[in-house]
Design brief:
Two copies of one chain form a homodimer. With 413 residues, chain A is of the alpha+beta class. Chain A has eleven helices and 15 strands. Chain A is globular, with a radius of gyration of 22 Å. Chain A starts with 21 loop residues before the first strand and ends with a helix.
Chain lengths: 413, 413
């Protein structure tokens, strides 16, 4: 945990409305941190459906394995999240911990164990002593209340410097529904997913397969388009819960992903996913600047994304931005190393509106002074046009600062 | 340039012998740096053969293009290298600069332009004013002398904190031959090759195709197995020159890569390449520790190398080592993100001789105290056994420190 809030933190936070059918409670379980909450329980009314997207790590955490196993059921009644310990690479003990948590959570919520979802974030490789907090779950479920969204976002923080939470409204068949989301991130953020946990809930009555379709598609240009340090965590978990309570107010139940009434909801969901993902980047460990990388003119969208990620993950590009240096030579380097089709002599590069390079060399009209002034901003946009085709992609990252090294040089100890 | 020498610099430097047929001179051309040499000329006697390996960047520098064009001829008479400016992404001006240099160098050495080799290292994207130093080449060739190997290594440095030069002897058909090598590196070092320049010369009489075969094979486990920051430069150049002068002392001319008399030479060459590559890593920007990553038990050698590079390039692993933290959880993370076959529950991880994780969880016999003491060393060995097959690989990198960020945050300005 950092005591200094990122300079890129939101200036204002939204007031979070309630989501009918969702109740939340948090506790100080003392798993690792002292003097702060580190355990969060989200309780869902009967009939809540769920979808999820997880890390692509070949070494996922025990809770990720657990969630993957329950997801096909499509039903959720309780979510338990702890911070301070990731319960990852904990072998048999890890599975015993999730089993213990699941049993306690199911007993507390009065549901089946396959309606329980779990997530853990923090140190990898240390056994999670679930017996030290599972007895708290009964009380947490009892005192859960609908308004505690901000508190939920706070309880799941690790090296985050501010809580991340957002809300949106959308029309579903003439009825206003609500979507709330929380997230935690900071280090180890990279496609695909990262030590990134995000939980989104809505009162819209949408069937689990439809939720899954929207969530899987929605992550490509949001959570899977952000990177802090190219490292991928063992624990990434994004869950979307739909209580269906808006049906009581006349909202239609949606069972077909192609249902045209879904348009506004999908846009609102994607907006929430994107804004949560950007908040995660803006709180990248040690981040002082947000960087948006646009690649256009690639042979294909896939190629554009690879090049954009090569730029966004380049330590040399990221340190240059930290130093407020419009070092487009390093952008050229990052394009070159991506291994994707590129022709040096067709490249055009902009920092913001400033075209610094054109057709394989420095732009003759380029003003170092103007670009230097631009580089002092908090938000830097790097745009590269490859001049080859119509493929394009956008990814987001942050700069690489001494604080990143300081934070990660002594995180475990 | 840094004023502080890396703590990982060699404790002793070799005395460099002469290579018959090679003469060297350096000059202060004032290309970017003041008060130091930044121009180096290596002159070769007639009959010198050459082989080369270059960056795989899709946006190579003008000198790389130039060398690639001349390489098929297999003959070299003069090498011109400057530091301070990479002549990369300089478009038409870049090609004009190499043409001017080539013309001046050929005139100075009395050879054809296709016997000239060029390399430039430094800032990308700034036009190289070759007219400011090409008039110096005539004098440089005239005053070139056989002993200036250390001076050559010094003239090609950029952010290097110490010059890199090595020598070796080998037997070729009963005659002792010599191999000398110099290199520069520091940042932007990654497979395949990086802002890495290296020039190796020998008096052995070996035909260009045989040199090329040995050099291409030799780089895989040497220069292409080291990484500082995963960034690949536009300028990487490794050239191997053979003057053939040892023939005068009875060394046989080798024209077949399978010639059994080549064994000792090949081993000596590979040793030079490996030691130069390691010296480059030991001078990684801001490096305080050298890290060797061994991966064994992979499905295949290729898979092992990908996993080893995933570990070696992980900012979280590298910052943990900088913080002297045996954070093997991050090693698990890096294995997981590599996308190669891996089974969490079969993983074994060692720091040095200390087995910290076994069969998917923390080693019960693991002593935090002993490992912490180990982590204080300059040289850290991380070994991962995947338990799946017989594929193995070794790569080398350095830690990621605040100094790396400081060096790269204000390099261009």
């Amino acid at each position: 945990m950092s005591t200094t809030v990122s300079p890129l933190a939101p200036k204002r936070y939204p007031k979070m409305p309630e989501i009918p059918g969702v109740r939340i409670a948090t506790a100080e379980a003392g798993i690792k941190y002292k003097g702060r909450t580190d355990l969060m329980v989200m309780v869902f009314d009967e009939g809540t459906e769920v979808a999820g997207v997880f890390t692509r790590s070949k070494c996922p955490s025990a809770p990720v394995d657990f969630c993957r196993q329950n997801l096909p059921g499509g039903k959720a009644r309780v979510l338990v999240v702890n911070s301070g310990n990731a319960n990852a690479f904990t072998g048999k003990k890890g599975r015993e911990a999730t089993a213990l948590e699941a049993k306690a959570a199911a007993a507390a919520a009065g549901c089946k164990e396959n309606e329980v979802f779990l997530a853990s974030t923090g140190v990898i490789g240390e056994p999670l002593a679930a017996d030290k907090f599972s007895h708290l779950l009964g009380d947490l479920v009892k005192r859960a209340e609908p308004g505690a969204w901000k508190e939920a976002a706070q309880a799941i923080m690790t090296t985050d410097t501010y809580p991340k939470y957002l809300t949106a409204k959308a029309d579903l068949g003439g009825v206003e529904i609500t979507i709330n989301g929380i997230a935690k991130g900071a280090g180890m953020i990279a496609p695909d997913m990262a030590t990134m946990l995000s939980f989104v809930a809505t009162d819209a009555p949408i069937a689990a397969p439809v939720l899954q379709d929207m969530l899987s598609k929605g992550t490509a240009k949001t959570f899977n388009a952000v990177t802090v340090d190219s490292d991928t965590s063992t624990s990434d978990t994004l869950l979307l819960f739909a209580t269906g309570k808006a049906a009581e107010r006349g909202a239609p139940r949606i069972t077909d992903p192609k249902d045209p009434r879904l348009g506004a909801f999908r846009r609102a969901l994607n907006r929430i996913l994107k804004q949560l993902a950007l908040q995660v980047v803006r709180d990248g460990e040690g981040a002082r600047k947000m960087i948006e990388v646009n690649v256009t003119g690639a042979k294909a969208a896939r190629s554009a994304k690879r090049i954009a990620l090569s730029i966004a993950n380049s330590p040399l590009v990221k340190t240059a931005v930290a130093g407020e240096d419009a070092n487009w030579g390093r952008v050229v380097m990052a394009v070159g190393k991506a291994g994707e089709p590129a022709d040096r002599d067709l490249l055009t590069i902009w920092f913001g509106e400033h075209r610094v390079a054109h057709q394989g060399e420095r732009d003759p009209d380029y003003s170092e002074e103007a670009v230097s002034a631009y580089m002092k901003r908090d938000d830097i946009v790097i745009t590269v046009d490859l001049g080859l085709g119509r493929g394009k992609a956008t990814v987001w990252t942050c700069d690489l600062t001494k604080e990143y090294v300081a934070i990660n040089g002594d995180y475990r100890s």
